[in-house]
Amino acid sequence: MTTKIDLAAILDDIAPAFAKNAAWMDATDGFMGDNYDILRERGILTALIPTDLGGGGATHSEMCAFVRGVAKACPATGLTLAMHSHLVSAAVANDRAGRPGRPLLEKVVANNWILVSTGANDWLSSNGSARKVDGGYLVSGMKPFASGSPKGDVMVTSIAYDDPAEGPMVLHFPLSLKAEGVSTMGDWQTMGMRGTGSETIKIENAFVPDAAIAVKRPRGPYHPAFSVIVTVAMPLIMSAYSGVADAAVEIAMERAKGTDALAHIQAGEMQNLKTTADLAVADMIRLCNDFDFAPSPELARAGLVRKTICANALRDTVAKAMEVAGGSSFYRKYGLERMFRDIQGSQFHPLPEKKQQELTGRIMHGLEPVAKPELDTAKAAA
User: Fold this and answer.
1) Would you list the DSSP string of 206-273?
2) Who has the most CB within 10 Å: 101, 125, 228, 366?
3) What is the pLDDT of residues 227-241, one digit of tens each?
4) Of 280, 267, 205, 183, which Cα lies nearest the Cα of 239?
5) What is the Cα–Cα distance from 233 to 255, expressed in whole angstroms?
6) Does the pLDDT value for residue 340 go beyond 80?
7) 319 Cβ partners below 8 Å, 6+ apart?
8) Which DSSP letter does residue 129 get?
9) Residue in 62, 66, 71 with CA at minimum distance from that of residue 92
10) Three-class DSSP category at 3
11) For the chain, which domains are there?
């Protein structure tokens, strides 16, 4: 058994160095790999894993606060850490509830793995293809937005599979980024969050053994696993973007003139927007309840509503911060325009606003979370 990790003390140690690198990463399309080395050395990759399994024993809420602090210093590092951490969180939540999860946690502890997620773009239908062979599957596909992939060890992903007996299915599994047939495309040239290295991963006839398949589910319909993933992931991801807004507000107030009533009103508007985002992310953290929750579509719906409110308020906060700072916000040297670009990514994480609203409305009407026309027709007829 290990001792509990002190995330607050580690944050105080590493944040200044992370902040110094952030602008360079953005300007050069650099990658936060050196920061990942520091996080690995300080035990952050295993921080969420219980101490009796050899991890740091941090709570989910503690990790959200840590991610937020890291992102305030370096947005790309905070967001990339959130992606790794939400995969660990899902495994912790599943293990606590008696569902499969412990083998992945044990491997992360044993190998100090960096995990890479591809689930955001896959959602319910996934993509790619799989062919059944002796002992497993040969899988192929393109997986964009794989944050941390240049330094990652294992991707947690899924592939569409047309099962001859069961029909369209999706296979979920871990896959080494060093496996034969797996490569990164070097295509992460973007508006913001440039240092995350969220490259597209190309999979060409990579072998996945039968024993590695964690979940096999019908392609398209909502699956209970997503109620776990949404509940643990969104607070971490939105905590990263909240850190970006924290930094933007701080810069804005340093640049603000504050000599007239208009400046005071603008600052007040900015604080109202930021408070809205803070309340939303705090309530997402509350819903996760440090992994003590019963997953359900209703819980996922509640988390996704708060995610939309949070993302919208965060983008508005940073836009208002540029207004508060005035013309100086247009200069790269002050960092606000970088925060403005980085915060735009918040809207693209699952679910984007209109898809969230559709899912929310369907659940409110007593329907399945996503459309299954034959069921909708039957319910309407009844």
Assistant:
1) EEEEGGG--EEEESSS--THHHHHHHHHHHHHHHHHHHHHHHHHHHHHHH----SHHHHHHHHHHHHH
2) 228
3) 999 999 999 999 999
4) 280
5) 34
6) yes
7) 340
8) E
9) 62
10) coil
11) 7-114 (1.10.540.10), 119-218 (2.40.110.10), 225-374 (1.20.140.10)
pLDDT of residue 123: 87
d(CA 293, CA 240): 22
d(CA 38, CA 41): 5
Mean pLDDT over each residue of the chain, to the nearest integer: 95
Spatial separation of the C-alpha atoms in residues 281 and 275, rounded to whole Å: 10
Residue 172 CA, distance from chain mean position? 18
3-class secondary-structure state, position 64: helix
Task: Say which residue, 36 or 376, is predicted with more confidence.
Answer: 36
Q: Whole-angstrom Cα distance, residue 41 to residue 323?
A: 40
Least confident of 42-56, 76-90, 91-105, 251-265: 251-265
Rg (CA), the chain: 21
The structure tokens 């979920």 sit at: 172
Backbone angles phi, psi at 286, to 5 degrees: -65, -40
79-83, 217-221, 373-377, range with greatest mean pLDDT: 79-83
Overall average pLDDT of the 292-299 stretch: 97
Q: CA–CA separation, 382 vs 378, rounded Å?
A: 6
